[in-house]
Amino acid sequence: MKQIVHKSAIPLFAAAAVWAAYALLFPLYRLPHFLLAAIASAVVGVMAKALCKDVVEEVPEEPERTGDEALDQMLEDGRNALAEMRRLDEAIADEKISADIVHLQQTSEKIFARVKEEPARLPQIRKFMSYYLPTTLKLLRAYEQAAAQGVSGENIDSTKRRVNGIMDSIVPAFDKQLDGLFGEQAMDISTDITVLENMMAREGFSDDPLHTAQQQNQTPPEEEGGVTLQL
């Protein structure tokens, strides 16, 4: 939410009224009266400002658009899901469930940020966005509703117990979804490291025993002209 501060105009009007009233009673063209009018208007303006507080208005911020309709829709759905997670975290008193919600929120934020950074990965989270995320929120709402009853019963306790249990599987599932978005990067880095290690070993910049042994076993090329004539 973005805050807009509306300052009250009453202090200005009050200060102006002092000038007008003083001008009707005293000659402002005389320096002492001018100074007294200025002091009086300043005092009245400060008092009016203390009494008339600024009005702060909260308005929703315009979401950032990327130009990609599918990506923008994903980001909007993600913002709504994160807002719902924050609400559920505040509404649910259970410390374990609350901690799980915070973890899911943080992981989801990283997932959305990763896909925003590389939109080509959007297909990798389609099922996450269409099923896993909304279903998780549905289960947490069910827990919230059951916990809000304030009584113990077979159905209420069963709902809370089952949701609590499934969270132990949902949390690592969200983590795996995030980890999967870095699969290609991990492969590229592994390839780069392997190539770098080989080059450093060939140039003698590392103590790799395998490449050192290979260098020692290399036979130097024969010199041109294999026949020697002796007189």
Would you mind describing this structure in some detail?
- This protein is mainly α.
- It has 2 domains: 2-59; 69-184, de novo design (two linked rop proteins).
- 70% of the residues lie in helices and 4% in strands.
- The chain has 8 helices and 2 strands, in the order E-H-H-E-H-H-H-H-H-H.
- The chain has helices at residues 10-25, 31-51, 69-91, 95-117, 126-147, 154-180, 183-202, 209-217, and strands spanning 2-6, 55-59.
- Strands 1-2 form a two-stranded antiparallel ribbon.
- The longest helix is centred in the C-terminal third of the chain and has 27 residues, at 154-180.
- It is elongated, with a radius of gyration of 36 Å.
- The N and C termini lie far apart (101 Å).
- 10% of the residues are buried.
- Residues 223-231 have low confidence and may be disordered.
List low-pLDDT spans.
223-231
Question: Span from first to last CA?
Answer: 101 Å
What's the total count of β strands?
2
What do we call the CATH topology of the largest domain?
Answer: de novo design (two linked rop proteins)
In round numbers, the mean pLDDT is 83
CATH architecture annotation of the largest domain: Up-down Bundle
